[in-house]
Amino acid sequence: MFCAFNGYMQGRWLTHFQEYDESWLYHPVFIGGAALFLLGQAISIHSDMVLQGLCKPGETETTTIPHGGFFEYVSAPNYFGEALEWMGYALASLSLPAMAFAIFTSLHLGSHALVQHESYLKKFDDYPKNRKAFVPFWW
User: Fold this and answer.
1) What is the largest CA-CA distance in the chain?
2) Using CA atoms, how far apart are residues 99 and 107, in angstroms rounded to an integer?
3) pLDDT value, residue 53
4) What is the distance between the alpha carbons of residues 117 and 134, in angstroms, rounded to a whole number?
5) 80-123 pLDDT, tens digit each
6) What is the three-class DSSP state of 79?
7) pTM of this prediction exceeds 0.85
8) Which of 129, 118, 124, 109 shows the shortest CA–CA distance to 44?
9) What's the rounded Cα separation, in Å, for the pair 95 and 73?
10) Residue 38 vs residues 88, 125, 135: alpha-carbon distances, Å
């Protein structure tokens, strides 16, 4: 139900409440938002591939500390990447529903990242102590 409502709000805003002319594609805000979206997507895809590579067939939980890419900075880079995607989309579209969803998604995924981080710290004695949960160098 939530996803249907969110999709409706995103589509309704873009088709009925926001008008973009062609020059918007060259505006620094749009370009920055699109770049942020693509960066988030690359982080998310790479992180998911790393996680998939850690589980053996039939396993549902990893027994190895993830390394590489943004795993060197945070415990849940796949969540961080998805939050960046939504922030980039919100910036590129200057959409109120997209901004609201980006904030909600960041808070929601951030809380999940914190749980994942605490789980890794308990599970692995040699887990890197300098890794943050969700946002590199900060949280």
Assistant:
1) 55
2) 12
3) 87
4) 8
5) 999 999 999 999 999 999 999 999 999 999 999 999 999 999 99
6) helix
7) yes
8) 109
9) 30
10) 8, 34, 17
Say how many CA atoms lie within 13 Å of 35 toward its Cβ: 7
How many angstroms separate the Cα of 21 from the Cα of each of 18, 92, 109?
Answer: 10, 13, 34
Q: What is the dihedral of CA 103, 31, 48, 65, to 10 degrees?
A: -80
Per residue in 40-74, pLDDT (tens digit) is: 999 999 999 999 888 777 777 777 899 999 999 99
The closest alpha carbon to 114, from 86, 139, 85, belongs to 139
Query: Letter for the amino acid at 128?
Result: P
Q: Which two tokens stand for residue 58?
A: 């039939």
Q: Rounded to an integer, what distance in angstroms lies between the CA atom of residue 110 and that of residue 132? A: 11
Q: Nearest 5°: CA angle at 76, between 70 and 82?
A: 85
**Quick one: which of 68, 69, 82, 67 has its CA closest to 113?**
82
